[in-house]
Design a protein that fits this description.
Shape: globular
Distance between the termini: 51 Å
Number of helices: 16
Radius of gyration: 23 Å
Number of strands: 21
CATH class of the largest domain: Alpha Beta
Structural class: alpha/beta
CATH architecture of the largest domain: 3-Layer(aba) Sandwich
Strand content: 15-25%
Strand order of the largest sheet: 8-9-7-10-11-12-13-14-15
Number of domains: 3
CATH topology of the largest domain: UDP-N-acetylmuramoyl-L-alanine:D-glutamate ligase
Length: 427
């Protein structure tokens, strides 16, 4: 059986790790992960033939040859290697979690810090038990800062990530109604996300916390170093000037007065901007450089994007959805001072016993505003009584919308990842 010290000597020779034989590059180390419906051990030899330098397996039958190394558990070994690599650095590791806004916050923070420091960060949303260690192992030896996104859908998950990420700084963007089924309700979400603060408390880390959210008052107790931000109170404050079509923010405290003209859609993004301002300030990034980085950032991956297609203006926010983010997006869209507004909303997943209630709450919210059209797709929308247009899946909705040949509209397109609401645009 291999030990981590020996494996790390190999990693230093071949510092590129993968778990997917479809993306093998010459010199990779392939980790043969297993799951309910796949067994990476079966592909160890194939990985070597495709150019991998080594393969790590946990079934002796596949440990054939000097370049296939046997361990007791491939996933645990991947995570242990990530921790060993992390321990070689004495640089800031900034962890970001929360119910909404994690990826946008991570991208904004990276945009600011990378202007001044050699900064490594999570690619896309590789923020789970596999993605987090892979992200750590991509941190180069020239790194000056690392920004790690952590997603979670049950308690003890963030705690487990902290065990090998060893964050020095942390941000919980917010705590909302996300993954209620796995967390066991809102109280479970508070506890689960709070595991990041628990780690920082135990290790003397620093936290960036929003003054606007009352629940952080209790969660922050015991932290030795807090950098507060908010729309009214905090070391760094800012207010919304407008959010149509893009968010404009007036920086009011902590940095020189400035009007930030972002390329973000939605007033709720002010909190993501405030985090980036706060971190840039603490890390002594030049103020104008901070402003330029935030203003230059363009969202992607179906997150708060403004798209123009076929004569329509489309707010595409279809990467994920939960009751908190759905309500914020709908309220923001309702405030938009335009006519001919159309909602395309996909069902919300992982809500457990509260799913029907939360979908019904959303219907009440929709009904409190005037829309040209409301189109609902999948999920528990199917099981509730309403007068809105309904389709079982986004493909059907996309086909219907294409037939309308309607122009001059403003659309909000949002739904859980499994709903694939971006088909409204792609098709």
């Amino acid at each position: 059986m291999i030990n981590i010290e020996f494996l790390y000597t190999i990693y230093k020779q071949y510092p590129s790790v993968t778990t997917d034989t479809r993306n093998i590059n010459k010199g990779d180390i392939f980790f043969a992960l297993k799951g309910p419906s796949f067994n990476g051990n079966l592909f160890a030899q194939q990985a070597l033939e495709a150019g991998a330098a080594y393969a790590i397996v946990d079934e002796a039958a596949y440990a054939i040859g000097e370049r296939i190394l046997l361990t007791t558990d491939v996933l645990q070994t991947l995570q242990a290697l990530a921790k060993y690599h992390r321990q070689q650095f004495k640089i800031p590791f900034i962890a970001i979690t929360g119910s909404n806004g994690k990826t946008t916050t991570k991208e904004l923070v990276h945009a600011v810090l990378s202007t001044t420091y050699r900064t490594y960060t999570t690619v896309g949303n590789l923020n789970n038990h596999i993605g987090v260690p892979l992200t750590i192992l991509k941190v180069g030896f020239d790194a000056q800062v690392a920004v790690i996104e952590m997603g979670a859908n049950h308690q003890k998950e963030i705690e487990s990530y902290c065990a090998y990420t060893l964050p020095t700084h942390g941000i919980i963007t917010n705590v909302g109604k996300a993954h209620l089924e796995g967390f066991g309700g809102v109280e479970g979400v508070l506890k689960g996300k709070g595991e990041l603060f628990d780690f920082l408390k135990a290790h003397g880390g620093a936290a960036f916390i929003c003054k606007d959210f009352e629940y952080f008052a209790e969660m922050s107790k015991g932290l030795q170093e807090i950098h507060w931000y908010g729309t009214k109170k905090g070391e760094v404050t800012a207010s919304i000037i407008k959010s149509e079509p893009f968010l404009e923010v007036d920086v009011t405290q902590g940095l020189p007065a400035h009007v930030l003209r972002t390329q973000l859609v939605g007033s709720y993004n002010i909190f993501n901007v405030l985090v980036a301002l706060s971190i840039g300030r603490l890390f002594c990034v030049d103020y104008q450089t901070i402003f330029d980085a935030i203003e230059s950032y363009t969202p992607s991956n179906s997150r708060s994007q403004l798209v123009e297609k076929d004569g329509n203006h489309i707010i595409l926010d279809a990467y994920n959805a939960n009751p908190s983010s759905m309500s914020a997006a709908i309220e923001n869209f309702a405030k938009l001072d335009v006519t001919d507004k159309i909602l395309f909303l996909g069902g919300m997943m992982e809500l457990g016993e509260q799913s029907m209630e939360e979908h019904q709450n959303l219907l009440h919210l929709i009904g409190s505003h005037a829309w040209k059209e409301v189109v609902l797709v999948g999920g528990d929308f199917k099981n509730l009584t309403h007068d809105y247009r309904y389709f079982d899946n986004s493909q059907q909705a996309a086909e219907w919308w294409k037939e309308q040949k309607s122009t001059g509209n403003y659309l909000l397109v949002k739904g859980s990842r499994s709903m694939a609401m971006e088909k409204l645009i792609n098709d």
